[in-house]
Design brief:
Layout: H1 9-18, E1 28-29, E2 64-72, H2 84-87, H3 95-98, E3 103-108, H4 114-117, H5 122-132, E4 135-137, H6 139-144, H7 147-160, E5 163-165, H8 171-174, E6 178-182, E7 185-193, H9 199-211, E8 216-222, H10 233-245, E9 249-253, E10 261-264, E11 267-270, E12 275-277, E13 289-297, E14 305-314, E15 317-320, H11 326-341, E16 347-349, E17 358-362
Parallel strand pairs: 1-6, 2-3, 2-12, 3-4, 4-5, 7-8, 8-9, 9-11
Antiparallel strand pairs: 2-13, 6-7, 10-11, 13-14, 14-15, 14-17, 16-17
């Protein structure tokens, strides 16, 4: 199988220079969730959530909360529905979860370019990413799409504002991460798309290069097998490499369906959160379901509270559980978390909260049977 053309080093380097980044910090600074505002002596502030005047932030000082989403797959639509302002509200249903986060991140898996989406859709897509998400993993786009579409995507992201990780034509360039600085600490994102024998060394190098600048470092790994119900041995091994190298959190994507969560040396590893935006597969029921991963760090150095917040995809957009079927759906998701996680290590799944989020913790190993007298 022939591979797609790789983006031009010169073009990508130029775009990264335009973003005002150094080798790690892309210069995007976030505070508590609020409308975008200028920050004296710093680049334009980018809100990392969907806070609004009607829903004031409830951020607790000193508490660092991170919300991670799955895959964003913008698809071409020859007949745009609604205005750019309406399209920019595609994540409105999950705003109650996003709005209190110190930092947010997801993975962009399709080009953001007028030649792929149609020129009428790009402004709306840019507005969505700028207004709702603070960091984006773009490694899949950088490594699997034609050069022209990849460079067009990065140009659009430079305009719209999210901090980007995984951009570049070489492994070293793609290893440069993104970072947002919040009042409670700095959160970093390293993006990596696997597929070669050198994966482990390249991933370790990228994490080592980013570790010192972050209070919490997230490794986002692309390239999972689409539709698989359990992660491959290569996926679990690479996740362990990431943790051993210094990642606090690992999220894998590319499978298009949600999978289980594991705890590796106490660090959460999400083996698939599903699609955050995009079309589902009628032949795969779980492609229309997904999770937000919410991690709350109460103090530096302490393990996070880990929660999975389920949603259903409706017309390509996430919608929190509700209506008469909410209790039934909560039961389905709760059992699924336990079942999908079992092969990775048993977990305990708590009761749903007001937004149907479930706290997930490692299950205690059963006590060994006592020896017969």
């Amino acid at each position: 199988m022939s591979s797609a053309p790789r983006p031009s080093v010169t073009l990508l380097s130029t775009l990264l220079a335009l973003s005002g980044c150094d080798s790690f910090d892309f210069g995007r600074v976030t505070g508590t969730p609020a409308p975008a505002a200028s920050v004296t002596g710093a680049p334009k502030a980018v809100p990392s959530s969907a806070a609004s005047a009607e829903a004031p932030s409830q951020v607790v000082p000193g508490r660092l909360e991170i919300v991670l989403g799955g895959e964003i797959a913008f698809l071409p639509d020859p007949k745009p529905k609604g205005s750019g302002a309406a399209a920019a509200d595609a994540l409105a249903s999950i705003r109650p979860i996003l709005q209190d986060a110190s930092a947010t991140a997801a993975s962009l898996t399709t080009p953001l370019d007028g030649r792929a989406l149609g020129p009428m859709h790009v402004p709306a897509a840019e507005a969505l990413l700028s207004a709702r998400l603070g960091m984006l993993d773009v490694a899949t786009v950088a490594t699997t799409t034609p050069a022209a579409l990849a460079t067009g995507t990065l140009a659009a992201l430079v305009r719209s504002g999210p901090a980007i990780a995984g951009a570049g034509a070489t492994a070293a360039e793609r290893g440069r991460g993104a970072r947002v600085v919040t009042p409670s600490g700095a959160v970093g994102l390293v993006a990596f798309t696997r597929g070669s024998a050198e994966d482990a060394a390249a991933l370790s190098s990228a994490i080592h290069g980013s570790r010192a600048a972050c209070d919490v470092l997230v490794a986002s790994l692309g390239g999972a097998t689409p539709g698989a119900e359990t992660p491959s041995a290569a996926d679990t091994a690479l996740a362990k490499v990431a943790v051993d190298a210094g990642a606090d959190v690992v999220v894998l994507h590319g499978g298009k369906v949600p999978l289980g969560v594991a705890f590796v040396s106490g660090h959460p590893v999400f083996h698939g959160l599903g699609r955050l935006m995009g079309a589902d597969d009628p032949k795969e029921p779980w492609s229309s379901r997904g999770f937000l991963a919410r991690l709350s760090y109460e103090k530096k150095g302490a393990p996070p509270v880990v929660e999975l917040c389920p949603y259903l995809l409706a017309n390509g957009e996430p919608a929190l559980l509700g209506g008469l079927s909410r209790t039934t759906q909560e039961g389905v998701f709760r059992r699924a978390i336990a079942r999908l996680s079992e092969p990775l290590g048993p977990v305990s799944v708590g009761d749903p909260d007001a937004h149907s989020c479930f706290r997930v913790t490692p299950a205690e190993a059963p006590a060994a049977p006592s020896a017969a007298p």
